Amino acid sequence: MRMVDLIEKKRDGHALTKEEISFIINEYTKGNIPDYQMSAFTMAVYFQGMTEQERADLTLAMVHSGDTIDLSKIEGIKVDKHSTGGVGDTTTLVLAPLVAAVGVPVAKMSGRGLGHTGGTIDKLEAVAGFHVEIDNEEFIRLVNKNKVAVIGQSGNLTPADKKLYALRDVTATVNSIPLIASSIMSKKIAAGADAIVLDVKTGAGAFMKDLEEARELAKAMVDIGNNVGRQTMAVISDMSQPLGFAIGNSLEVKEAIDTLRGNGPSDLEELCLTLGSHMVVLAKKATSTEEARSMLKEAISSGKALDTLKLFLSAQGGDASVVDDPSKLPQAKYIVELEAQEAGYVSEIIADSIGTAAMLLGAGRATKESTIDLAVGLELRKKIGDEVAQGESLVTIHSNFENVQEVKDKLYASIKISSNKVEVPPLVYDRILE
Ligand code: URA
Ligand code: CA
Predict the structure, then answer these.
(1) What is the DSSP string of 300-368?
(2) Backbone φ, ψ for residue 9 (5° rounding)
(3) Catalytic-labelled residue, pool 55, 78, 81, 82
(4) Half-sphere exposure of 162 (CA within 13 A, CB side)
(5) Residue 158's closest CA among 42, 45, 294, 59?
């Protein structure tokens, strides 16, 4: 096989065979296909798309480009959840202990990543002593015992995707539905998920700014999952404003604790119950989402969800007493209110630029080498649709430096106030089941 022929075939709109796709992925991973040919290929895919069969074949080829995680020693159906980006998305921190509390095994492999705030591991490290440097055996033992554990990314998972994603980033080919869908799904499958719940975000803070695109991406991922034998469904949820109130590592841990106690922001709680009930059904712990939802609500009201969080934290060295006393989490030195300059109704809270403001405080990582300040971040005091008086706080800024003028300017530019009443955007737009 010659790469040039395969580029031409895709350029002219034909579907590639499984063998042809495997050849491209294997040879590219090994370094036998140069970046310039792969760039031409991804651009051809960008314009010509891929059939459902090609997408499944591409995903599996990427899964098999490296190690895969074997979770077969964990009892039960392992359901993973993936959210496509978003700002201040605390759902993983809530969902892991919440679904574990009703018996769904959560074997989470997580990274640090770049972004407005840290990844799940960074957030959890706000709890003193908590660590993810455990070996595979210990990981499996903990999931079987407590139903939840988190391990740091190890091994050589989907090297083809790593290489390809970096190439797409600099060749204007990230934004292709078959390439995004296969990239995300290959990582979930390599990490050992039997079933997958996807939370595809749409709106100003998301990758897919409009609903139709989000729906198309969701459908593409659900098809891939189901075509390769992993039951998959997707929820399309709103990211026109940040989810919940907290954006920042310690602040999000506290928000997750509040939510598991039943005192969290209503949008965060609702999305967690929605995603969680689908996870419970896919894990076959309930026969309907209604039944699953009442099991999850019961885990919250009985305290079982909080107890599961404590078990999970202490099993990995964490100080579980933060759950009853969140003031033990890292605290910022300066607390500054962002006062509304006019009265009215909040009409916009542009999620990605709020995220940038959190970055300015040091809550996230701009490069792999940056360090994160776990204490800092933002707490929204108002959400879209809320009425606000002049001088009332819109946001509480938690900072470790005194002069936060630049952060304030960014926040004022991200929050719009209208003199007319504003409708609250829906939280869940759609569900894609098959
Ligand atoms: N996230 C991924 O992991 N891959 C993509 O291609 C896009 C977003
Ligand atoms: Ca949040």
Answers:
(1) HHTTHHHHHHHHHHHHTT--GGGGT-GGGS---SEEEEEE-SS-EEEEEE-HHHHHHHHHHHT-SBSST
(2) -60, -45
(3) 82
(4) 11
(5) 59
Ligand 1 atom showing the smallest separation from residue 184 Cα: 3
Q: End-to-end CA distance of the chain, in Å?
A: 35
Does the pTM of the predicted model rise above 0.85? yes
Is 183's C-beta closer than 6 angstroms to any atom of ligand 1? yes
- Closest ligand by atom to 258 CA: 2
Share of the chain above pLDDT 70, in %: 99
In short, whether 165's Cβ falls inside 6 Å of ligand 1 is yes
Q: Which of 22, 183, 186, 277 is catalytic?
A: 183
Cβ(323)–Cβ(313) under 8 Å?
yes
How many helices (H) and strands (E) would you count in the chain?
16, 13
SS3 category, 69: coil
Strand partners, 96: none
- pLDDT tens track for 129-183: 999 999 989 999 999 999 999 998 877 999 999 999 999 999 999 999 999 999 9
Q: What are the φ and ψ backbone dihedral angles of 335, each rounded to 5 degrees?
A: -115, 115
Q: What is the pLDDT of residue 205?
A: 67
